[in-house]
Amino acid sequence: MEREVWRRRTLEEDVGKIIQIGVRAYSSEEKEIIESNERVKTWFARDLISIDSEHSNWNKMINQIKNLSGPVWLSFDIDGLDGFLVPATGTPVPGGLSFWGANKIIQELFNAKDSQVIGADVNEISTSPDTNLTEFSAALIATKIIACHIMSMKENLS
């Protein structure tokens, strides 16, 4: 429900487009927004991570990221990763993005020629007394975001 409210408020503020990557579980309210609002593009994990590479939409999704224009806010829900990488999260669902896939998406976003990442957040992190894998995965994702930001700033200065 929280994602649906966040998405609705974002669209009400006249944000140009929302791109969701790796979605595996969603409510009926979220489904309605996904299907009815042309400003919301959703890349479902099942369509990105296909055992049949001919039916994978990975390259289409990467191309959409490369062709973004204007300011971009990156909101990384840690539960978009496969549940075995993030067991301590609000919605640990199997079948999500791999760690390296997430890194590729972040890198391509920062390399997009006509867009500028103006901010980012990493969220949906919980703690567990049994493992710190979720926190460690989140820290590595945040590190990748920061490293890509630094590299893009260096490129803009040259």
Name of the level-1 CATH class? Alpha Beta
How far the N terminus sits from the C terminus, by CA atoms, comes to 44 Å
Q: How many structural domains does the protein architecture include?
A: 1
The CATH superfamily appears as: Ureohydrolase domain
Structural features, described:
- With 158 residues, the protein is of the alpha/beta class.
- The protein has a single domain, classed as 3-Layer(aba) Sandwich (Arginase, Chain A), CATH 3.40.800.10.
- It has six helices and four strands; from the N terminus they run H-E-H-E-H-H-E-H-E-H.
- The strands form two sheets. Strands 1-2 form a two-stranded parallel ribbon. A two-stranded parallel ribbon has the order 3-4.
- Strand 1, helix 2 and strand 2 form a beta-alpha-beta unit.
- It is globular, with a radius of gyration of 16 Å.
What is the strand and helix layout of this fold?
Elements: H1 2-12, E1 18-23, H2 28-36, E2 40-44, H3 45-48, H4 58-66, E3 69-77, H5 99-111, E4 114-123, H6 133-157
Parallel strand pairs: 1-2, 3-4
